[in-house]
């Protein structure tokens, strides 16, 4: 090794040892004949010291020629520091330099290599290798490594086998858009990159692998957003001879293990909520349960506390629903106006907001006092189980649409009230998803999860009767802090039922056979009952890291146009390559 | 769980417990009113028992309707067996069935699901999910999981961080052919799939990651052979602030750990051999050192024991070189003829073979007695350090060509003499590879390893003088049993040297900048000395599994045409897909 120690390990016990350190120059101070250099590597920072008159002139000259981020090697004895630095682990000591050499000089970096940098997003992505030098970014990737490591530890202990499934597979029309790869050896034909190893893991169950997992890259050629990347990583799992309950317990165990090992948090038992209740009480299939603030219906299927008072807006609405914001009765007019503006934003889409202040003195004041008496409003307050000081925020409209609007408002209020701290974690299983959803545009049914998801046995009658919208699936999502972290289902393992599903989804027999014939065949040769799930690994890491952006947890991410601006990819390729592949571009 | 136990865990201690087992029917015997069913899963086989008159008629009827590979569930008490089976772990007990149900019937499989199957390669690949049910195939993938697990264990303990590098990268002209992926969002442009994460791991060193690894899929669009797959897996590693010696020791440590954990073998220290000596003594840069049988030169740079005796073949040859096959002096004429035929095969390409029998009685008899006296032959025998009973096998011709021929013959003799047992392991570091090799066809120099490999400092003069063929690289291969399992190098980390290398390789400044500008830039911002290596993971697994074929260690391999015959991929894709990608096929 070019070094005897790294920059994070010297302590008082090393005093008087002669050591050689290597690393990057973080900072240099040259004052009163003394020079101090902070030398950095992945493991920490160690202070080097040179002294006019004592250190050799050669070393002093080299030290004075150094710039930030130079790569150097330094040798000398470890000495105790006079003024200790308790902010760094090596702060009790410094190295009194006897010799110094430059391993590689460095140009001035285009942005500061510090925890707080002056570099904007674009420049940091172009020089990602410099951005990765910064502690917070490197810490994210170290966290990622730990999450992977503890995931494997848990699954290995539970007799899961990691099996690598192929990356060059076959394009399928269902689901998101595939990336494709032209085959040179089979001209005119294409591989596809997997959106997930779904069918392969099911085949592994047919093979009797019993418990499979894989931490695996997946690919989707979709338009990108902040939290989407064209290539992303999944923790992909499958088990045989199980029921839904077994899966929930097994992977609640994984979550518990990760929280304990990675964050030092003892996770309580994860509550469960049906999809129907999640929509009813939170207007979302991934409610943020770090805070309560459940929806209360003033007018709906079970109650009506608003009609017949000449308030047209509510009278014409199918649903009047709201939330109670604790302690917000004192909001100023301006604050309430902000909320009204918030719900009217196109992303939310509400027409207006009705507010009711339940003041601390017990009085009630609403924005619809023209229509409703204090007696009416008292009933509302009672329905909300509100306390003095609460502000009721009420939206109206039609069913799921208004629920989704109120979900946005609820999350906004959670943020305003400081209830969405990224250091707090709240996990939830959402269960009993609908099996199918109707695509109005396409005029056909789509699988909500994927075509291999099993209907609940008690809902099989609806499959026969054609009430497809009523069929619930044995499907489940793990939601943490309002983020869908994982999801899965019990699978269909009977050939006839799978064929029926393809039929419902509008596949002709021929199409089903062409696309998934191998799976249908496999089901004829002894397929066990099985099910599984997949976690979004990038997202899981970002949650543990307390960030909204998965990009921060990917070493070399792509931008919103799918470009890697560092290596400048994608790029044009040579005509010779295109000719060999027997394709041409039509741009 | 649908079962209380798996099929590998019941013991005498479980007797009298009522258990439920699930699995596949391996075998049924119905004899004298008794029915025995061997129930199989990944964990083992358990015997189920039913008895006419005691077991319910319903269960008996179901049992009699079962076929091989049916998936069933069976419940009943565990009882001690009268005649125990010591070949299986559960052989002391059986389960006395009270109820039995069919979870999924199975068609008769197209080949026997037994350790020895009657299925040919093609049918087994088409029904790979059935082939994977067979114990030896499943064991291979379990071994693969273990090798990965212990690799991670070792590298994690050594402070390596696993970092995922991108799969959608940029096509580069150097090296093998890339698979490419058209970009929909950037029409006319393409990603490439990585042949290795080489440049990314070097950038991670520039980022200060210090120790990186990744078990990662790589891709090469090359014509396929038995031991090549278009997608394969590497254990990819890189370290900073190290010299070659550090890498050799670190990864010898990994090899030692794997041999111990996976095979229970204590690996001795791995010897080293220069490339020059490997070629001189074994005619190969990956000698099989499970056996000695080193080359001996009768005529070469240092000696000439053959010239001037009117034997034209030897007189006109630049090199006369042979091996001594222990105890083969007694080979029959037929056996010797076989060897002559062997060396004349087009794959070997020799013109003929000269043999010398050093008989046990001390007499010497050769196929060239016409030209050489016993006195001459005695000198040969002495040069070979041969013992009575040995057979000398001698080839002649020009330099490396004849050495490669003799390498083939040596391996053949090793096999014939039983010296290449796959249960024996011999590891070797081959070091000091040439940096560059000349491509006669292309009329230019190529990097033997890759363009980022560092020349030995003492050979830098040849880079200036233009004696490119003389430059040795800080490059090394790990060879096990004659198979190149891993290889790597110390990298260039200085911008100027890297630019010089690209120049030698015939890159224009512009090309170098276009292809590797980001790396050259990175070298300006403080790149540390670094180096690394990669192991061929599939090959490593096949070695540990005692097989020549990497395919046996890949769950879903492709055939020699790059096809997955199970899922029928690659395949044609829809015109709509091509249109969106702005490409068209020209087949």
From TrEMBL, chains A, B:
Identify the keywords attached in UniProt to this record, alphabetized: Aminoacyl-tRNA synthetase, ATP-binding, Cytoplasm, Ligase, Nucleotide-binding, Protein biosynthesis
Claim: Acetylation is one of the keywords in the record:
no
| Entry's Gene Ontology molecular function annotations | aspartate-tRNA ligase activity; ATP binding; nucleic acid binding
Q: Which GO terms describe its cellular component?
A: cytoplasm
User: What's its EC?
Assistant: 6.1.1.12
The record's region (Aspartate) falls at 198-201
User: Where does the source fall among the domains of life?
Assistant: Bacteria
NCBIfam families noted in UniProt: aspS_bact, PRK00476.1
User: Subunit structure, per the record?
Assistant: Homodimer.
- In Swiss-Prot or TrEMBL terms, this protein is called Aspartate--tRNA ligase
Provide the gene name from the record.
aspS
């Amino acid at each position: 090794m070019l070094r005897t120690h790294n920059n994070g390990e010297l302590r008082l016990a090393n005093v008087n040892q002669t050591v050689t350190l290597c690393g990057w120059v973080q900072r240099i101070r040259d004052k009163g004949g003394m020079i101090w250099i902070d030398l950095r590597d992945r493991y920490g920072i160690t202070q080097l010291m040179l002294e006019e008159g004592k250190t050799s002139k050669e070393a002093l000259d080299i030290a004075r020629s150094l710039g930030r981020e130079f790569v150097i090697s330094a040798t000398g004895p470890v000495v105790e520091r006079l003024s200790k630095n308790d902010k760094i682990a090596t702060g009790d000591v410094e190295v009194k330099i006897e010799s110094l050499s430059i391993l590689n000089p460095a140009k001035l970096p285009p942005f500061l290599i510090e925890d707080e940098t002056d570099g904007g997003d674009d420049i940091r992505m172009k020089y990602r290798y410099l951005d990765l030098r910064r502690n917070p970014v490197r810490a994210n990737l170290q966290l990622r490594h730990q999450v992977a490591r503890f995931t494997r530890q848990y699954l290995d202990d539970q007799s899961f086998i990691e099996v690598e499934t192929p990356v060059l597979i076959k394009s399928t029309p269902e689901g998101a858009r595939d990336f494709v790869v032209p085959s040179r050896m089979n001209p005119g034909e294409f591989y596809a990159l997997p959106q997930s190893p779904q069918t392969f893991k099911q085949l592994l169950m047919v093979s009797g692998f019993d418990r499979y997992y894989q931490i695996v890259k997946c690919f989707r050629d979709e338009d990108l957003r902040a939290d989407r990347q064209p290539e992303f990583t999944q923790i992909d799992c499958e088990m045989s001879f199980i029921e839904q309950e077994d899966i929930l317990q097994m992977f609640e165990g994984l979550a518990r293990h990760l929280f304990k090992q990675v964050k030092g948090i003892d996770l309580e038992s994860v509550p469960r909520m049906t999809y129907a209740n999640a929509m009813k009480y939170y207007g979302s299939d991934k409610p943020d349960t770090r805070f309560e603030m459940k929806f209360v219906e003033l007018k709906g299927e079970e109650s009506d506390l608003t009609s017949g008072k000449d308030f047209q807006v509510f009278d014409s609405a199918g649903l009047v629903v709201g939330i109670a914001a604790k302690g917000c009765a004192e909001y100023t007019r301006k604050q309430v106006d902000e909320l009204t503006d918030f719900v009217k934003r196109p992303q939310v889409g509400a027409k207006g907001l009705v507010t009711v202040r339940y003041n601390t003195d017990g009085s009630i004041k609403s924005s619809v006092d023209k229509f409703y008496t204090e007696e009416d409003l008292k009933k509302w307050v009672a329905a909300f189980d509100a306390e003095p000081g609460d502000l009721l925020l009420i939206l109206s409209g039609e069913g799921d649409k208004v629920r989704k609007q109120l979900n946005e408002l609820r999350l906004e209020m959670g943020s305003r009230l400081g209830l969405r701290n990224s250091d707090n974690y709240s996990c939830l299983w959402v269960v009993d998803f609908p099996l199918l959803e109707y695509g109005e545009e396409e005029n056909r049914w789509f699988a909500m999860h994927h075509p291999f998801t099993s209907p609940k046995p008690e809902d099989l009658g609806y499959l026969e009767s054609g009430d497809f919208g009523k069929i619930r699936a044995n499907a489940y999502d793990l939601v943490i802090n309002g983020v869908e972290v994982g999801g899965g289902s019990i699978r269909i393992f009977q050939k006839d039922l799978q064929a029926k599903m393809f039929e419902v989804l509008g596949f002709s027999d021929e199409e089903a056979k062409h696309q998934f014939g191998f799976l249908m065949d496999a089901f004829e040769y002894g397929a066990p009952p099985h099910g599984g799930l997949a976690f979004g690994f990038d997202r899981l890491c970002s949650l543990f890291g307390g960030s909204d952006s998965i990009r921060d947890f990917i070493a070399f991410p792509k931008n919103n146009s799918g470009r890697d601006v560092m290596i400048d990819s994608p790029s044009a390729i040579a005509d010779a390559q295109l000719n060999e592949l027997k394709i041409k571009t039509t741009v």
